[in-house]
Amino acid sequence: MPTLNRFLEGSFAPVKEEITATDLPVTGQVPAGLSGRYLRNGPNPLGLDDPNYHWFVGAGMVHGVRLRDGRAEWYRNRWVRSKAVAAALGEPWPGGPVHENMDFAANTHVIGHGGRTLATVEAGALPYELSYELGTVGPCDFGGTLPGGFAAHTKLDHATGELHAIAYFWAWDHVQHVVVDAAGKVTRTTDVAVSDGPMMHDFALTSRYVVLLDLPVTFSLNAVSAGVELPYVWNPEHQARVGLLPRDGSSAVQWMEVAPCWVFHCLNAYDDDQGRVVVDLCQYDQSFDVSTLWSAHGPVTLDRWVIDPAAGKVTQQRLDDRWQEFPRVDERVVSRPHRYGYSAVIGEAARAITAAGDFADDAFSNALLRHDLVGGTVEAHEFGRDATVGEAVFAPAAPDAAEDDGYVMAFVHDPERGAADLVILAAQDFTAEPVARIHLPARIPLGFHGSWIPD
Ligand SMILES: [Fe+2]
Q1: How remote is the CA of residue 342 from the centroid of ligand 1, in Å?
Q2: Among 130, 125, 115, 174, which residue's Cα sits nearest to residue 146?
């Protein structure tokens, strides 16, 4: 373990204050059709004195920019007020439901659903509901309709308005598929038996199936005993497999074995016209010990898995061998065939993660990628050596615009100002100068996931 904790310094260093800034300066022009908020969550611990700090367990801080009528109205960053965060800030805790004593300042994703803004996290805790201006409302169990914990990653089926999630919790002998309706009430849960307590960070959704990734990163009591902050370790005894759970609950899960690997994120999935399921995802093709992000791991590439339930087999194909993460599609095509995908080349994160500090391809460091998976082409928008960039999110130009007709937005660190910009790229002119760079008054640490939430 390094003497310095890479996740407390440089591009990861937490910020120390909450800021409200209005009428933000812009280079270029904010598209007049974009009215809403771009929000992004990430860990931002309040104390900086823990050398064993694990990036995944820092208290969540949500950063947001509100756009309207061609202007950038405000920037706000706010800690999620869990009980511990509220106490550290000297504030009363707003209170609310807690699952199995797992109160946590949700740090992984932020979504809008059923009129709520929700900061989400996995492994047993509940989401936290936030106000429009990112104040903490309190923990959310969907009006008492959620029986257990929730999940960081969700998939919204735009055709039905259903929000799907896979919840896992170390003390369960199953994972739980949760369906939330458009009004924000849980309408169905299905328990799926699993062994060893696998981490299921993400999953995929098609029109017919929920695609489960049961991979060899599992809960470890030994790691708990050793004081590991995130006790999920590589477990070679755990058979890696992919499961197809029919969305309509018509039958049990069909499991198919795959070679040991690790996947944090799926780009998207869909049913093809031959009864198969196509899943595009970012795959680490060697072991990945989540409990210690400093252990070296293999490359992470964009791959396509074709799951054939009739043959009971999964075939894999590499789509792009650049190291990349945070794959996203136009949210409107989730669960249906996609042509385009966007991802981040993870130079900074990879340098922090690999033990040797090496990185496969510095030339693509700090870049966003736009994949045309039908045309078989990739474009890179590079931001420069020290301009770190994280996940990008697609916002359509209009509700009925074609896939890829819109904007790709992300927080990008501007090394000259020592602060972040919200950069807006035209998806269909991806390598051109940004349409807009909204200059924010502070750094934004590298973090996890976010959403464009139109008004
Ligand atoms: Fe994630």
Answers
A1: 15
A2: 125
Amino acid identity, position 148 = G
Contact call for residues 234 and 220 (beta carbons, < 8 A):
no
Dist. CA 153 → ligand 1 center (Å): 6
Cα 95 from Cα 450, distance rounded (Å): 25
Round to whole Å and give the CA distance between 109 and 125. Answer: 13
Task: Report the 10 Å Cβ neighbour count for 405.
Answer: 15
pLDDT at 56: 82
Q: How far is the CA of 250 from the centre of ligand 1 (A)?
A: 29
Give me ligand 1 centre to Cα 430, in Å.
24
| Phi-psi domain of 382 (left: phi exceeds 0; alpha: psi -120 through 50; beta: other) | beta
The rounded Å distance from CA 204 to ligand 1 centre is 12
Long-range CB contact pairs, 435-438, < 8 A, 24+: 435/28, 435/29, 435/30, 435/31, 435/407, 436/26, 436/27, 436/28, 436/29, 436/30, 436/31, 436/72, 437/26, 437/27, 437/28, 438/24, 438/25, 438/26, 438/30, 438/65, 438/72, 438/75
What amino acid occupies position 114?
Answer: G
Banded pLDDT at 22 (limits 50, 70, 90): very high
Whole-number Å distance, alpha carbon 384 to ligand 1 midpoint, is 25
Single-letter amino acid code for the residue at 81:
R
Instruction: Convert the pLDDT of each residue in 100-130 to its tens digit.
Output: 999 999 999 999 999 999 999 999 999 999 9
pLDDT value at residue 2: 43
Report the separation in Å between the CA atom of 220 and the middle of ligand 1, taken as the mean of its atom positions.
21
Cβ-in-10-Å burial (0-12, 13-18, 19+) of 346 comes to buried
256 Cα: distance to centroid of ligand 1 (angstroms): 23
The rounded distance, in Å, linking the Cα atoms of 287 and 263 is: 10
Tokens, residue 314: 């999964």
- Distance between Cα 23 and ligand 1 center (Å): 31
